[in-house]
Amino acid sequence: MDKDPDAIAVAQARFGADARVAIRRGSFAALSDWEAVAQAPLDGVLFDLGVSSPQLDVADRGFSFGKDGPLDMRMDPDTGESAAQWLAHAAEAEIADVLWTYGEERMSRRIARALVARRAQAPFERTADLAAVIAANVPRAKPQRGQRETHPATRSFQAIRIHVNRELADLETGLDAALDALAPGGRLAVISFHSLEDRIVKRFIARHAKAPAGNRRLPEAQAFVPALRIVADATKADAAELHDNPRARSAVLRVAEKLPAVHGEAA
User: Fold this and answer.
1) What's this model's pTM, rounded to 2 decimal places?
2) pLDDT in tens for each of the 267 residues of the chain?
3) How many domains does the chain have?
4) Measured in Å, how far apart are the chain's first and last C-alpha atoms?
5) Per DSSP, what are the bridge partners of residue 126?
6) 30 and 103 housed in the same domain
7) Quick check: is 63 in a domain?
8) Ramachandran bin of 148, using left for φ above 0, alpha for ψ from -120 to 50, beta for the remaining angles
9) Same domain for 232 and 144
10) How do beta strands 252-258 and 182-192 pair?
């Protein structure tokens, strides 16, 4: 299941003739609406979050500040506003909020002010153009020893992409749908690529696996019944994988197992 029509085309070419494989274009936020999922509880659900390598590597998709292309950033190019369309009308305060909330960009207000001033002269239509304006307003940070230098537009591009695609809202909805769809003993595995995603996944699993902290002023309404069991600590790519796939350097895998229902209550 994927929003991206190019990803669906690849899946169809590889697995379209395999009766064991069902393929659907769409967001995993709509997982519960998929007939293939509704037919029977699932033994496992894997979420591979964020942008894909083909999206970054194909300039025409408009995701990359390193390759000039039309400023789009939509995973589903047939749905919603492109990054260029949003930047053409968004208020300065909204742009600043998006850059701060989804990119944790400390220079968010300065960048937003520069973007609004620049679009008054000409709209943003190309990724390289946007990256250049952002870079001119973000001081380059000297990387620590052993770390790669980060492009000044990295956080802003991430933030705009997350906003345009509703990535975090879809993730929260998709996690709820996955838990409902899993059979007892089924496992939920999520690969995230930045701290905002991982924070949502970590809190979701903890909320369903661990009793909330007690408060002596508030009596417990009912005993906590866990719906998930944490299978292992968060896992990161090892040196061998990073050698073959440097883009996995920020990846975090979390896995949890659905527990059986207790006393007839849904888990």
Assistant:
1) 0.87
2) 999 999 999 999 999 999 989 999 999 888 888 887 777 899 999 999 988 888 988 898 999 998 999 999 999 999 999 999 999 999 999 999 999 999 999 999 999 999 999 999 999 999 999 999 999 999 877 766 666 778 899 999 999 999 999 999 999 999 999 999 999 999 999 999 999 999 999 999 999 999 887 666 666 556 889 999 999 899 999 999 999 998 888 899 999 999 998 654 444
3) 2
4) 25
5) 70
6) no
7) yes
8) beta
9) no
10) antiparallel
Instruction: Quote the CA–CA distance of 98 and 112 in Å, as a whole number.
Output: 10
- If asked whether residues 60 and 156 sit together in one domain, one would say yes
For the residues of 37-75, what is the DSSP string, one character each? HHTS-EEEEEEE-S--HHHHH-GGG---SSS--BS---S
The tokens describing 9, both together, are 């085309």
Is there a domain that residue 266 lies in? no
* CB hemisphere CA count around 196 (13 angstroms): 21
* Closest residue by Cα to residue 50 from 188, 198, 230: 198
